[in-house]
Every structure is written in C-alpha cells, then in structure tokens.
Model the fold of this input.
Amino acid sequence: MAYIIAEPCVDVMDRACVEVCPVDCIYEADATNLAEGDRKPMLYIHPEECIDCGACEPECPVEAIFAEEDTPDEWKEYIEINAKAFE
Done:
C-alpha cells in the first residue's frame, strides 16, 4: 500500500484529496467487511489502485494522509484498516 488515511479523517471526510487523485482511488467505503469496532466514517485509499503519486497528501486539510512508511505510530492500525476496507 502506498498511502493510507488515518484517524484525523474520521467523521471529517473533506474530499479535497478525492478531487486531486489522478486515478480515482479514494473512496468512501462502506467497509462492511471490517469488524464492528473498525468501521469508521472516513475515506479510504484503495491499496491496489493507488499509484503512489502523493497528490492527495498535501491537499488533506486535517493531515490524515500518510505514506505507509511515514504513518505515525499512534495511527499504525489504520494501515490494516485501509487494506481491509477493500478485501
């Protein structure tokens, strides 16, 4: 996975990132396959569609988008949450 969306997006879903994504890989997923506690009202980046361009990261007004390897420790769980949203 190239980029992930973390906790600051929960309940915000600004969508500025969606507008700049050149491959339309950011979704408001229903995430019905996630465990009840993992379901978050947020946007998700599709791990197989993301081309790692980074266009979304600076557009996020709540700084919720991170390159996977740069995800802060406090939000590492969102790497798996983003991946599971598309299983």
User: Anything to note?
Assistant: The radius of gyration is 11 Å.
